[in-house]
Amino acid sequence: xxxxxxxxxxxxxxxxxxxxxxxxxxxxxxxxxxxxxxxxxxxxxxxxxxxxxxxxxxxxxxxxxxxxxxxxxxxxxxxxxxxxxxxxxxxxxxxxxxxxxxxxxxxxxxxxxxxxxxxxxxxxxxxxxxxxxxxxxxxxxxxxxxxxxxxxxxxxxxxxxxxxxxxxxxxxxxxxxxxxxxxxxxxxxxxxxxxxxxxxxxxxxxxxxxxxxxxxxxxxxxxxxxxxxxxxxxxxxxxxxxxxxxxxxxxxxxxxxxxxxxxxxxxxxxxxxxxxxxxxxxxxxxxxxxxxxxxxxxxxxxxxxxxxxxxxxxxxxxxxxxxxxxxxxxxxxxxxxxxxxxxxxxxxxxxxxxxxxxxxxxxxxxxxxxxxxxxxxxxxxxxxxxxxxxxxxxxxxxxxxxxxxxxxxxxxxxxxxxxxxxxxxxxxxxxxxxxxxxxxxxxxxxxxxxxxxxxxxxxxxxxxxxxxxxxxxxxxxx
Length: 478
Hints:
Layout: H1 6-10, E1 17-29, E2 33-37, E3 45-48, H2 56-60, E4 67-76, E5 84-95, H3 111-116, H4 125-147, E6 151-152, E7 158-159, E8 171-172, E9 200-202, H5 207-217, E10 219-227, E11 240-249, H6 253-274, H7 276-291, H8 303-312, E12 316-319, H9 320-328, H10 331-334, H11 351-362, E13 366-372, E14 388-396, E15 400-407, H12 412-422, H13 430-437, E16 443-449, H14 450-458
Parallel strand pairs: 3-5, 6-10, 12-13
Antiparallel strand pairs: 1-2, 1-4, 2-3, 4-5, 7-9, 8-9, 10-11, 11-16, 13-14, 14-15, 15-16
C-alpha cells in the first residue's frame, strides 16, 4: 500500500480506514506510543503499538531518529492534542538510529549546537518550520512576478564585473595556487593564461546583467545565489545568500517603491495564509525568547502581530535628509548611546540608526530615499541637486535594511562621468554602457536579500538559522 503523508492523515476525517505511514520517530513512550513525523507538517501523528504482540527485538529498535513504516487503522484519538491516531497492525524498521549517538534528542538544544549539526537540525520542530516557511516564501516570490508578467532571468554566477564596487569578492581561478601561476613582467599574475582569459569572481549581484534584459523584455527578475567575501561575523551577514532582483524599464523611483512594498506584502501574506501551523509554533517560540530579554529590549508585538502590522500599514516614505535631522535630534544620539554618532549630513546609516527610525520613531516599516551620492553605487541616478541620488532602502523592525534599490542612471554622459570619478574601467563595462547608447530609458530595480525576509517572517534573530547550510567566515562545513 502506498503511504500517506502525515499532514493528510491528520486532516482526514474519515476514520476506520486502513493506512500506511512512513517517517522518523520523534519519541517512543511506554513501549506503546510513537510520535511519528515525516516533515510534511510540524505536527506528529501518534501511532499506538500493541506491545504485547510486537517482538521485543522490534520494540528495542524504535528509537528517536529511526525511520519506520507503520500500517494500521486510522481511528479517533483517545488522548488530548490530536484528533486521529493510528492503531498499528504491523511495523517495519526502515533505518535504525543509535539512541546513544543520535544528537537530536527530544529536548531543547541551543541554536549554536544545532548549527554544528546543520545536517540533522532540520529534524527539529524549529528548523522544520523555518524550512517549510522558506520554501513557501520562495514559491510566493516566483508566483508574484509570474502573475505580473515578469520574465525570470538566470544571470551568471561567475562574472568579470563588480556590481557593487565593493571589492569584497571571491575570486574564481583555474591557475595553480602553489606559486607557479604564469606572471607578467612586473611580477603580477597573468590572468590571460587563466581559464576565462581574465580575472573572474563569484557574483555579488545579478543587477547589471538584469538591466540589459529589462531594456529588451520590459520587466524581469532574478532569484539566485550571490556571494560576499566580507569578513563580517555577525548575525546579519552570510558569505553566500540568495537575492531577488527585479528590474523594470520605464519605472521611476516612486514606481520602484510601489513595486517593492506590494511585493513584500504579497509574499508575507502568502506565508501567513499557507504556513499557519508553522507560524503559530514560531510565534510561541518568539514569545518564549522575548521573555528572556530585559524588559526594555522586548518586542512590543508578537511575531504574528508584526507580520500583520506590515500587511496592514503603508510603509512610511522619508527622505535621507529628513531621517538625518530626526537622528541628530534623537535622545540616543544626544546621550551618545549610538555606537556611531550622527553628526552631519552625509553619514552612512548603520543598523542601529535604521532600527531606531523603524522601531522607536515611526513604529512602522520605512522607505528612505534620496541618499548622498558619495555613499551609494555608481549606477544610481543623480538628482538635480548634484549631491543626492535616486536611491531607496526599505527598513524593517528587528532587521534594519531588507531592500536596497534605485532608479538607474540612464544618461550615458552622466554615467561615464560617475564611473571615471570612481576609477571604474569603462572597457570592462562596455556592454553595460551599450544599454545607455542604444535606446536608453528611465528604469529602476531593487535587491532583496531573501534570508533577511525569511528572518523577519520566522522571528529568528540569526541569519545562519534561516538558510540550510550557512557559509560564514572560517566555516564551510557540510
